Amino acid sequence: MTAPAESRATLAAVAERAGVSKATASKVLNGRPGVSEETRRHVRRVIEELGYTPTTGPRDPQARGAVHVVFDNILDMYSLYVLDGVISGAAVQGVDVVTSVLAEESGASALSLGTGRIKGIAARGHIGLIVVTSELTGAEIETCENLGLHLVVIDPVNPLDDRVTSVGATNWAGGVQATRHLIDLGHTRIGFIGGPPGSVFGRERLHGYREALETAGIHPDPRLTGSGRYDAESGGRAAAALLDLDDPPTAIFAANDTMAVGALREARSRGLHVPEDLSLVGFDDTYSAAWTDPPLTTVRQPLRQMGRVAARTVLELADGKVPDSHHVQLATGLVVRASTTPPRR
Questions:
Q1: CATH class name, domain 67-168+303-329
Q2: What tens digit of pLDDT does each residue of 218-247 get?
Q3: 46: helix, coil or strand?
Q4: The pTM is what?
Q5: What are the residue boundaries of the structural domains of the chain, listed by start?
Q6: What is the dihedral of CA 228, 200, 90, 119, to 10 degrees?
Q7: What single-letter DSSP state applies at residue 6?
Q8: Is 309 in contact with 82 (CB distance < 8 Å)?
Q9: Using alpha carbons only, what angle is made at residue 58 by residues 57 and 62, rounded to the nearest 5 degrees?
């Protein structure tokens, strides 16, 4: 008997009735390997008994699912490096990758993934969803669970619990590395340009910056902390505010390379020379960092590896494997180029 609409069966209910994990129930639903024939027949009987179908309609059990990657913005080098890693990681297992970019919903104050988009992704038979630098709501996470759509987040913007597996870098350690480099050069007035207040990885880089200052016996000056939106324009505006101070910084650490480029442009517009008048450090080590003038000292984030790990993880989840860690962090490293030097005496 089909369940009434007001009590529609969920994948979790199917798994509980059948006495299997949600990952196993999802495999049966998607026709994926790794399940015995006896278990497969049993789960299908339960699906029929409960009248379960995804809210977007049944899936083709013969279709080979793809991994869907959603970016908040794909027009930057960060996204392209991550995407390259995802594609190479999925290709190892013969899985295709589909990409899309968040759109601003009518009446929304920010870019939104939305449960409707998630249902559409699941309806097309995609087995996994990788979300890059975008905020996720509880309703969106629950929708993925109910539809058996395996979810991995790269550089999560908001805090996530253990229902979601995330992949990122050691942002705090990177913040320490960048700031300590400037301190070792002799800088004591060091500005910081971070991301939006809600950005988790931005806050981690800020905390690393503060930790390095305090360890060196330098009291963090709140006037030296600004914020941007990870683009060159906002990085330039934040740098302008710092350079307008009565006692401006002799060095600036920006939380990504793009904002560091904006700070470089702002410094030049004022007739300042980098690094003689102002040292600059970025974060990411994208292609552009090596081709600025002067080349940018930056914290290297293993972006391609992050993409590969995310792809491998989402496919392992689809195969019913439990991840060793729900929050994977890959090591960063400082790359010293020509944009930093000791301050003028």
A1: alpha beta
A2: 999 999 999 999 999 999 999 999 999 999
A3: helix
A4: 0.78
A5: 5-50, 67-168+303-329, 171-301
A6: -90
A7: G
A8: no
A9: 145
